[in-house]
Amino acid sequence: MPRYGMIFGLLFLSGVLSGCVPTPEERIVQGISNAREAFESEPKETNKTVGQTELYVPRGYDIEEPSNDFDSLITKGNDSFALFINPNEKASSTFFYNMQKVDPEQQWVADETFQQNGRFGFATVKEIAEDQLELIVSAGGVQLTTITQESDIPKNMDWMMKTVRSIDSDE
User: Fold this and answer.
1) Which terminus of the chain is more solvent-facing, meaning fewer CB atoms within 10 Å of its CB: N or C?
2) Spatial contact of 61 and 75, defined as CB atoms under 8 Å apart
3) How many angstroms from the chain centroid is the CA of residue 58?
């Protein structure tokens, strides 16, 4: 009898735990929420430099060489993140957002804009393939983009927005 109790307990526990795994939609919602919170927070203290630009990059991430003043590649393991800086754009700029809207047939899984104290930002998610999504976050004239698995959306959108917010765009 104890053996059946243990089997039943394991089945019950696995059923409960499988119900706790977030759905892809919940991960996207959490990612957008993380991006909004990072956008509305004070900028992170800078710890790296790209050309003449100081920025925050989390521990464990590297800025690849060669890098120029306006385009850089940030990596961690096999993950790559493309950073674009347009120094002609202010914190209120919608330049990168408007560029995405050129193709009216483009389908976005998520598309959120943020505004605070004259600053503009956004976070978008586009499905590339099964379990492969393109994330784009931007604040003013700075954009960071990557292709990621849906399980990594919340953490990536959080640090990505913290990074773009850390770059001074003449607020």
Assistant:
1) N
2) yes
3) 13
Token pair recorded at residue 125: 């998610």
Please state the pTM of the whole predicted model: 0.85
pLDDT tens string 89-114: 999 999 999 998 888 888 899 999 99
Give the DSSP H or E segment for 16: helix 2-18
Distance separating alpha carbons of residues 78 and 71, to the nearest angstrom: 19
The span from the first CA to the last CA of the chain, in angstroms, equals 69
Spatial contact of 142 and 53, defined as CB atoms under 8 Å apart:
no
One-letter amino acid for residue 152 of the chain: D
What's the confidence (pLDDT) of residue 65?
81
* Cα gap 39→17, rounded to integer Å: 32
Q: Which residues of the chain have pLDDT under 50?
A: 1, 16
**How much is the pLDDT for 170?**
63
- CA–CA separation, 62 and 81 (whole Å): 10
Q: 63 with 50: CB under 8 angstroms?
A: yes
Nearest to 75 by CA among 60, 86, 85: 60
